[in-house]
Amino acid sequence: MTGNSHTMLFDYPPFAALCFLPLIGLSEAAILTFGFLVNIACVGYMVRRMLNAAGIRTATGVWGLTALLMAPIVWLEPVRLSLQLGQINLLMMAIVLADVLSPPSRRWTGIGIGIAAGIKLTPALFIVFLVATGRRREAAVAGLTFIFTIAVGFALLPVDSRDFWLQGHFQDIRRISSDPLANTSLAGLLERFEWATPWPTVAAVVFAIVAIAIAAVAWRRGLLLLGVAIAGMTSAAASPFSWSHHWVWFALLLVHLGLRGYVHRSRVAALAMWTLGAIFGGWFVASRSLPPQAGLMSLRHPGTWDQLLPAAYLLALTIVLICSVYTFWRARQHPAAATIGIDAMAEGSRPRASIGPLYRDH
Asked: Within a domain: residue 355?
C-alpha cells in the first residue's frame, strides 16, 4: 500500500483496499498505534465473547478468566507477530467469531463472515462450516455478502478487480511470497517435498473436508469453541499459502482448553493449554536482528528440519483432530450433550448462572 517493494506488499482483494480508505491522512506512526490498540481490543473482545458463549456471565468469572487467558494468548507466536506486524488477522477473527457465535434468532448473521471473506478470502471456509452445522440461511447470507464485496470492488476499482479475479491473480501464491519455507499450510509442506501439481491442492481439499466434518461434530455436541477453533485453523491449513501469523485461531483452542482446565478442573486440559502456549509462544530466539527473532518458526536449521518446521502448526492441528475424534467416540453414551451448545446460543444474552451446561464434562 505504501508503494515500497521492500516492505510487506498488499495482497488482498481490491475490496480490502477500499476498507482502508478511512486511514488516509494518518501518519505511519498513528496507523501503527491505532492498529495495535484495535488488535489488543480484538483479543479482549474475543476472549470475553467466547466466555459468554460458554455460559460464563457473572462479572467476576468473566473478567478473571479474561485476564488469565489473555496472557498466554498474546504470548502465542501468531498473535504476537500479528501485533508486531500490524496484521488484520485478529480483526478478521473477531468479526468471524462475533458472527458465528450469534444466536440463531439474529436475522443478519453471516454478513460479518461474508465481509471478512471479501477482505481476506480464507474466512470463506466458514461458509462451508455454516452449511456443515445446518445453518444454511446464515451460509446463504454470508455467500451473498461475499459476492457483494466482489461486486463493490468491480464497481469502484474495475481494473484492479479484473486483474485480481479474472486474470487469476487471487490464486497465484507468488503475490504473497516466493519463499517455500515461509508457507505453513499443507500445500506448502507437500510442495517442499516436490509433490507434483495438482496433488497438494487435492490433499488440502480432502484435509479440509475431514477437518470441517470434525468441527461440525464438535459444534453439534455443544463444543462451540472447539468447533470454531478447528474451522479457523483449517482455513490456514488448507490455504495455498499461510504465514505463521495466520494461525491466530490457536487462541480459540487455548480458551477452550482453559475452560476445560480451570472451570471443569481438567488437569489434562490445563496442561495442554500451557504446553501449547510454551511450544508456540513468542519467546525470543535471537536478539541481534531488528526486530528480535522469536518463536518456533525462528529455529531454522538447513536440511530436513527446515522442510518440516513450518508444518508445526499443521501437526498440532492434526493432533487436535485425532484427540477430538477420540473424545467424541468416548462420549457416544451421552447423546444429550449434542445439542446443549445450540440451546445455549438460542438463549441469547439473557442472564444465567456463572457457568452453564455448554462445556459440561461428559
From this structure: no
The owner of cell 470463506 is 124
Output the CA torsion sign for 184, 186, 190, 195. negative
Question: Considering the domain boundaries, does residue 109 fall inside one?
Answer: yes
Q: How many CA atoms lie within 13 A of 311 on its CB side?
A: 17
Nearest residue to 247 (alpha-carbon basis) of 107, 61, 87, 30:
87
- Whole-angstrom distance, CA of residue 259 vs CA of residue 202: 36
If 0-12 CB within 10 Å is exposed, 13-18 middle and 19+ buried, where does residue 176 land? middle
Q: For each successive 10 residues of the chain (362 residues), what is the average pLDDT?
A: 54 90 89 92 92 77 78 88 90 96 86 96 96 95 97 94 80 61 88 87 96 96 94 95 92 90 87 89 64 67 78 94 91 54 39 38 34
Q: Which amino acid is at 200?
A: P
Specify if 319 maps to a domain: yes
- Tell the burial category of 54 from Cβ atoms under 10 Å away from its Cβ (0-12, 13-18, 19+): buried
Q: Is residue 332 part of a domain?
A: yes
φ/ψ bin of 295: left (φ > 0), alpha (ψ from -120 to 50), beta (otherwise): left
Cell numbers at 317, concatenated: 492441528
Q: What is the DSSP letter of 187?
A: H
**Total Cβ atoms within 10 A of residue 170:** 15
8 Å CB contact between 275 and 253: no
The total domain count for the chain is 1
Q: What is the pTM of this model?
A: 0.85
In this structure, are residues 234 and 209 in contact, taking their beta carbons and an 8 Å threshold? no
Range of the domain at 156: 27-346
CA 30 to chain centre: 26
What residues contact 133, with CB distance under 8 A and at least 6 apart?
216, 219, 220, 227
- Residue 280 DSSP class: T
Size of the chain, expressed as the number of residues it contains: 362
Torsion of CA 209, 136, 330, 258, to 10 degrees: 90
Cell of 132: 456443515
